[in-house]
Each structure stands twice: as structure tokens, then as C-alpha cells.
Design a protein that fits this description.
The complex is a heterodimer. By secondary structure, chain A is α/β, with parallel strands linked by helices. Chain A is built from 10 helices and 13 strands. Chain A starts with 17 loop residues before the first strand and ends with a helix. Chain B contains 11 helices and no strands. The longest helix of chain B is centred in the first third of the chain and has 38 residues. The radius of gyration of chain B is 19 Å and the shape is globular. Chain B starts with a helix and ends in a 6-residue tail after the last helix. The chains are: A alpha/beta, B mainly alpha.
């Protein structure tokens, strides 16, 4: 695990636009974000982590919606909580589904543009609605929109003033696969234009498709940061818990233990749970071992394939 | 100025949603049917006296404060509850402008709803008495009520989850109950500030005067004083709301 992502050190980028320095945020006794130091620069950065990892709190502090309990957050060198003028250069998509239900999409986006001091709010709104492919439904009330359409309206409202920094909290939630693909393409385009795009998600595959860099959080702490490839490499080292359902668990387990990739085995009447550091080799060996022991294997499944378990492992390694 | 107008217009649009407006109009407009129900068989002067009594005893004491409370607590409370505050806060706009815009919107929206009720009772009283100046004092009172309630309840909506319930408790306990027995708090009672503006402009019979004096206690009738007090409350409220928006975490964890 020498190549663990926390060691990759790519917590900081050279051309940082958004910086968290020793940032902590707690609510009463509950610590939501703990001593996070990292920075974000041009391009798409994925903020990854399981639910409850502290991603939303971190983004809210970075955006200036919450005050840090300790440390500081800056956008373009300024504290957004104090210097509201920085919001001319910042777009934010909150995680919550809520929108202004008394407005239609066009009015909502125009209103955002006007409040962000865009000169021709109408034209800017039309462009933003076009970008998220919402023009056809722009004159419908937001209250009648599906969750995915609301997300796109929120994205349009966040980018209508052409911001340098775009902070997106789970922007793909509720979108269908087609909408998701289009939004991912849009974020990649925006990142390619040199904007800082921070996208939070608990779905690794989504981030994998759009982000060149990943910052991963677990339990309020920074667990990893670096390129997507480096994170994936780190994850391949993660011990996995594999369940094998078989009619002869004891015989099969004894045979599998002969392989040095098996770290631990737990046997129950219906099968075996194996902790392994090399799931690929184990997978190949299962068929051979089943034949040799005359066992019938009815199912093989990964018990801890969630991102949460991988991240927990990363944290335990720190 | 542009930001102020944008915020005021948008918050007013939300506060004057159809369902809320109709519901509150049923409340504030209920004086008209009561008046029409009780008017038959009475002279014009008697109906005018009745109008004044109902206005002070029911409209200004309960119906108008409750309607204005509902509107004012929703101004920022609804944004907080429905998680739409980021759309307002993450803009390059001064927190003072946001506070001013929201409180103005709450006051205007309250006034629209109260005045709809005032107009209904004004028309009813005007038709029966032939005196078409009868509603002027109530219109001024509605305006003072709207500003004072917005000043008091907009920041409350931002701070407290169930602000309408807390506000209702305040109205019943502080304004109605304690205000009538503790003279020291009468000068700061919104109900009495509103009645003092109304009493300065209304044409009252001796019976009405007794009722009004009983309500006002040590507070002198005077529209100027009432407007000044409401304006002072509004300035304090804008300051408090601006500070809350600036320094307090308004997004739930």
C-alpha cells in the first residue's frame, strides 16, 4: 500500500483558485469536516466520498455558505463569507432539490443573471438554458419539473454569469442516463475552457468519466487526492471480502487457503467469506479449487465493493 | 438599486402565491360579511360605530396581525426551510440590500393582503353608511401593521423553525394578554402602535373612543408617532437581518 493515494500528494495544485487551509467544521459535538487542506484549480476535480463523508459541508464552507469552525477557505484569493463580490466569479449548485417553484425556468435563470450583475440577463439566460438543453421547457413552471430538469435549471442558473469557479454538489442526482451524459460533457467542456469545476459525487464511475483529478473524503477527513488513475491503483490494493456459496465450504476453504493471496477465511454452513489482497487471482483459483475438491459453487460475490469500504480502508491506512 | 428591486419583486411574488393569498384574504376579509350580517335594521351612524368596533376589536387585534405574521415569517423562513437560501445568498449582493429587499417585500405583500380585506369591509361599510372616507384610517393602520410586522417577524423567520407558532404565541401572550395589564410594555406593543395610528384618523363615536382608550392605555393616539415607531423598528430589523445573513450559518447541517 506504499502507493496509497494520501501519499500521492496532490492535495495542492500550482494554479489554485479555491483553497481550503486546515479547514474544520463542526456542528455542536459532531465534526463534519476535520482539518482538510487541499486546493482546486482549472479543470474538473471530483470530490468523492460516501454519503456522510463531509463533502456537502466542505463545499458549503468553500462557497461561503457556512463559516469554518477553524482554518480558512478562499476563492480567487478572497474569503467569500466577507467579500461577496467574489460571487461574480462563482457559480454554485446546491445538493438540495429545491428551486423557486413560483418561477419558470427562464425567469429563474434570468433572475440569477441579473442578480449576478450580468448586463444582458435575458440573452445570458437563453445561452445558459441552451447549454443545459432546457430551452424548450424554459417557460414552464419549475414546480412541474422532474428532478433531473430541476438539476439542469440549477446548473443553468449557476453558469449564467460565466463564472470562473463552478461548485456543483451532486449535480447528477436524479438525472436520467442521457441527461447525465450531457451534463458530464458540459462539465468537461467548462473544465476544458480553463474554469475550476468542483463536482461532488458518491459514485466513482461518474467522477471517473469527467474528472482529471480526485479529492476523496471519508469521515470528514481528506482520504486521498490525486489523479483518477492513481486513486484506482490504490484501490486495486485494497483487501476485498469475497463470498462463495458452495455445498462443501470446509473442503473448498482448506484448498483455497493454500494460495498466499488469501488473508483470512470465515466458514458458515452455506459458504465461505474470504478476505483477499488479490481478488483477481482468487477468482481464477476458485474454479480450479472447486473442480479439485468436487465442490459445487453456486455464487461468488464481493461483499464490500462499495466506495465507502474502499475509502474506509484508505483512512485506516493513514 | 437593481438588486433591491429584483429581490423585492421575487420575494413578493413568492409570498403572494395564490393559495396563501386566498387563505389570508378569507381571514382579513371576514369583517365585511360580519358587518353586512349585523347591519340590517341599524342606522348609518350605528353601522359606522359597529365598523369601528369590529375593526379595532377583531381586525387590528387578531386578524391583521396574524395575516401579517404568516406573510412575514415566510419571507426568509420559507427560503430557509426549503433550502433555497443559497440562490439568494451566493450572489454579489450586499447582505444589507438583501435584508432591505426581503423586509420591503414582506411589508408590501402583507399590505396587499391586509388592504384586500380593508377594501372589502370599506366597500361594505361605504354602501351601508354612505360615508366613503370610513376606510382611510384602516388603510393607514394596515400599512403601519405591515411594516411593523415585517420588521419583527422577518428576522424571527430566519432564526426559528416554527416562527409562525412562536409569533402567534407572542401576539397572544405579549400583545393581547400582558399588554393589557402591564402599562410599561404598552408603548412598544405593535397592536397599540397600529391602533394609535388608526385612532388619529378615524371618526369615532364616544363608545368607540372608550374602547380605543382602553386598548391604548398610556399610549397617545397619533399617526406620526406610529409611523416613526414602525420606521424605527424597520431600521433595527434591517440591521439585525443583515447581521444574521452576514455572520450566521443559515444552512442546516
Amino acid at each position: 500500500m506504499s502507493g496509497a493515494p494520501h501519499a500521492m500528494d496532490a492535495r495542492d495544485v500550482s494554479d489554485a483558485t479555491v483553497v481550503a487551509s486546515d479547514l474544520s467544521k463542526w456542528f455542536g459535538q459532531k465534526v463534519a469536516v476535520s482539518e482538510v487542506s487541499c486546493s482546486f484549480g482549472p479543470g474538473v476535480t471530483g470530490l468523492l466520498g460516501p454519503n456522510g463523508a463531509g463533502k456537502t459541508t466542505l463545499l458549503r464552507v468553500l462557497a461561503g455558505l457556512l463559516s469554518p469552525s477553524a482554518g480558512k477557505a478562499t476563492i480567487l484569493g478572497r474569503n467569500p463569507k466577507r467579500h461577496h463580490s467574489v460571487y461574480r466569479q462563482v457559480g454554485f449548485v446546491p445538493e438540495d432539490e429545491a428551486v423557486y417553484n413560483h418561477m419558470n425556468a427562464r425567469r429563474f435563470v434570468e433572475w440569477s443573471a441579473a442578480l449576478s450583475q450580468v448586463e444582458d440577463a435575458r440573452l445570458a439566460a437563453q445561452r445558459a438554458l441552451d447549454r443545459v438543453q432546457l430551452s424548450e421547457d424554459a417557460d414552464r413552471s419549475l414546480s412541474g419539473f422532474s428532478k433531473g430538469m430541476r438539476q439542469r435549471a440549477k446548473v443553468a442558473s449557476a453558469l449564467v454569469h460565466d463564472p470562473q469557479v463552478l461548485i456543483l454538489d451532486e449535480p447528477l442526482n436524479g438525472t436520467d442516463p442521457v441527461q447525465r451524459a450531457r451534463l458530464i460533457e458540459l462539465f468537461m467542456q467548462l473544465g476544458g475552457e480553463g474554469r475550476t469545476i468542483i463536482v461532488s459525487s458518491h459514485v466513482l464511475a461518474e467522477v471517473d468519466r469527467m474528472a482529471t483529478r480526485v479529492v476523496a473524503m471519508v469521515n470528514g477527513r481528506l482520504a486521498a487526492a490525486g489523479s483518477v488513475a492513481a486513486l484506482r491503483d490504490a484501490m486495486s490494493d485494497t483487501p476485498r471480502l469475497i463470498r462463495i456459496d458452495t455445498d462443501r465450504p470446509r473442503r473448498l476453504a482448506r484448498r483455497l487457503l493454500a494460495g498466499n493471496w488469501v488473508e483470512a477465511v470465515r466458514i458458515d454452513p452455506a459458504g465461505i467469506e474470504i478476505r483477499t489482497s488479490d481478488a483477481g487471482t482468487l477468482g481464477l483459483d476458485i474454479a480450479v479449487a472447486a473442480r479439485e475438491t468436487d465442490s459445487v459453487v453456486t455464487a461468488v460475490s464481493a461483499e464490500d465493493d462499495s466506495l465507502e469500504s474502499v475509502f474506509r480502508y484508505l483512512v485506516e491506512q493513514r | 438599486m437593481r438588486a433591491f428591486l429584483l429581490i423585492t419583486r421575487s420575494v413578493m411574488g413568492r409570498l403572494l402565491g395564490l393559495r396563501r393569498s386566498i387563505g389570508l384574504f378569507v381571514l382579513t376579509g371576514s369583517i365585511a360579511p360580519i358587518l353586512l350580517f349585523l347591519a340590517p335594521g341599524r342606522s348609518g351612524d350605528e353601522v359606522a360605530t359597529l365598523y369601528n368596533d369590529i375593526t379595532v376589536g377583531l381586525g387590528l387585534s387578531i386578524l391583521f396581525p396574524v395575516a401579517a405574521l404568516v406573510v412575514s415569517t415566510a419571507a426568509l423562513g420559507e427560503e430557509r426551510k426549503s433550502h433555497t437560501l443559497p440562490f439568494l445568498l451566493l450572489k454579489p449582493t450586499s447582505r444589507w440590500v438583501i435584508a432591505l429587499g426581503v423586509i420591503t417585500a414582506a411589508a408590501l405583500a402583507s399590505f396587499v393582503i391586509l388592504e384586500a380585506g380593508v377594501l372589502a369591509s370599506w366597500i361594505a361599510a361605504g354602501v351601508v353608511t354612505g360615508d366613503w372616507s370610513i376606510g382611510v384610517s384602516t388603510t393607514v393602520a394596515a400599512a403601519v401593521q405591515s411594516v411593523a410586522s415585517a420588521a419583527l417577524f422577518v428576522p424571527l423567520g430566519l432564526l426559528v423553525g416554527r416562527a409562525a407558532v412562536v409569533g402567534l404565541g407572542y401576539l397572544l401572550i405579549w400583545e393581547v394578554t400582558l399588554g393589557s395589564v402591564i402599562e410599561g410594555i404598552q408603548a412598544s406593543s405593535i397592536y397599540r402602535i397600529v391602533v394609535s395610528a388608526w385612532a388619529d384618523l378615524a371618526t369615532m363615536t364616544p363608545d368607540n373612543l372608550d374602547t380605543v382608550n382602553e386598548v391604548l392605555g398610556r399610549v397617545e393616539a397619533g399617526v406620526g408617532g406610529a409611523v416613526a415607531k414602525a420606521a424605527a423598528l424597520a431600521i433595527i430589523s434591517i440591521t439585525i437581518t443583515g447581521l444574521l445573513l452576514r455572520h450566521r450559518d443559515l444552512i442546516p447541517e
